[in-house]
Specification:
Elements: H1 12-84, H2 89-97, H3 100-109, H4 116-120, H5 127-172
Helix pairs in contact: 1-3
């Protein structure tokens, strides 16, 4: 049996279902917002805790590094004063601005130096810098060599190709009367 549906036919069951889906939609949307906010709060809290931990670790490392440098500088100042007398403000500033590797190098120089300037003056060109310059020059020379050889090869090939074409034409040309 087929039932005709018209605008006057009541659909109470469908209206109830429609209302239920509307309520479920609204509640689901609310829940979704609440869940997202809960997740965001939890993630932010965990991220904050992790960031604080990392920040503390980095701060501790930086503090130790600065403390080590300060200790090395104070030891070098003590040795300089012991060997050469009072250290000037200019030399102290130079020591404070210097990295730990250089401070250690200067600590070794003090053993053979006859004055404070021999200790804290950096040579115009360090041996390692000279080695680096020579290595760079060697690399550059190799690049130039390859470049010029390549250009010479291209030019020679081009000239040889033209000459070969000319010679080939001469051999094929009929003799002149």
């Amino acid at each position: 049996m087929v039932t005709l549906v018209t605008s006057e036919t009541p659909f109470p069951r469908l209206t109830v279902l429609h209302d239920m889906f509307t309520v479920i939609d609204n509640v689901t949307e609310e829940w979704t917002k609440e869940w997202w906010e809960e997740g965001w709060k939890q993630g932010r809290e965990e991220g904050l805790q992790e960031g604080l931990g990392q920040g503390r670790q980095e701060g501790l490392k930086e503090g130790l590094k600065q403390g080590q440098k300060k200790g090395e500088m104070l030891m070098l100042v003590h040795l300089l004063e012991h060997k050469f007398g009072p250290v000037s403000e200019q030399h102290r500033r130079r020591l404070e601005e210097t990295d730990t590797d250089t401070l250690l190098e200067w600590s070794e120089r003090i053993l053979q130096a006859s004055g404070i300037d021999e200790v804290v003056q950096k040579p115009i060109l360090e041996l390692t810098e000279l080695d680096e310059l020579l290595a760079m020059f060697g690399e550059r020379l190799g690049e130039w060599s390859r470049l010029w050889r390549n250009q010479g090869f291209k030019k020679g090939r081009e000239e040889g190709l033209l000459e070969g074409v000319k010679q080939g034409r001469r051999k094929r040309s009929p003799p002149s009367p």
